[in-house]
Design a protein that fits this description.
Helices cover 35% and strands 17% of the residues. It is globular, with a radius of gyration of 18 Å. It has seven helices and nine strands. Helix 1 packs antiparallel against helix 6 and helix 6 runs antiparallel to helix 7. The chain has a three-stranded antiparallel sheet with strand order 1-2-3, with helices on one face. A three-stranded mixed sheet has the order 4-5-7. The chain is of the alpha/beta class. Strand 1 and strand 2 form a beta hairpin.
Length: 228
């Protein structure tokens, strides 16, 4: 519910819905999803290490999802706890999106603080950290489906990342350039900068995202719509 609320707040004015859950079947080292074979591996070619939990190939998952985009919708995002990879050069892949098919997927698997290997967060903070990490990647992949590419100009939610430390340092907000692009893409839905920031500010307050709430409050003052 919290992740859905964040996506709805970020893309303020755009209807967001949850579809029925689907399952990828893994049997005897082979995987299928929606009737299609999906590459599945238990050893990473990049480092030769065993991946006991197994990984699904993200690109093949997107191809299988191409018919899931609702007739009254623009895109579909798959959310999974299964670990993903994209190519043999990857150790893992947390998310991927297709602008052509308007399908995307991301995995919670690497985001749990008990698995990241370095954050050292106390157990009481695990839930909040997991939600914060998932929120960023979910909207990042959806924004790709709306045509936004990786941002190379400023600190931005659309920055690319090559490893988890870099991923976790990416901010939740869009830079002015990417926000302007999103305004154009979502203009038919009445999307505005003030509405976007206000919706996010309320989410951040509700879910105790203190740093993001403070940043958004300042941003609203700059655009002339201070939060009441």
């Amino acid at each position: 519910d919290a992740l859905l609320a964040y996506v709805a707040a970020f893309f303020e004015g755009v209807p967001v819905a949850v579809l029925d859950p689907l399952r990828a079947e893994v049997r005897r080292g082979k995987a299928t999803f929606l009737g299609r074979r999906v590459p599945y591996r238990t050893v990473c070619p990049q480092n030769g290490e065993a991946v006991a939990h197994g990984q699904l190939q993200a690109g093949a998952m997107l191809e299988a999802m191409e018919n899931l985009v609702p007739r009254d919708g623009f895109c579909v995002l798959g959310v999974t706890t299964q670990d993903l990879f994209d190519s043999d050069s990857d150790v893992f892949c947390v998310g991927l999106a297709s602008t052509r098919d308007r399908t995307g997927i991301f995995s919670f698997h690497r985001y749990h603080p008990c698995r990241d290997g370095f954050s050292g967060l106390p157990r009481r903070a695990w839930g909040g950290a997991l939600l914060a990490r998932a929120c960023k990647t979910a909207v990042h992949e959806i924004a790709h489906m709306y045509g936004l590419l990786h941002c190379v100009y400023r600190r931005c939610c659309m920055n690319g990342s090559g490893h988890l430390r870099e991923d976790f340092n990416i901010p939740h907000h869009l830079c002015p350039s990417c926000l302007a692009k999103l305004c154009v893409a979502l203009a038919p839905h009445g999307f505005t900068v003030a509405g976007h920031l206000t919706s996010l500010a309320r989410f951040y307050q509700q879910y105790d995202f203190e740093l993001e709430a403070a940043w958004t409050k300042r941003a609203l003052t700059v655009v002339g719509s201070p939060l009441s």
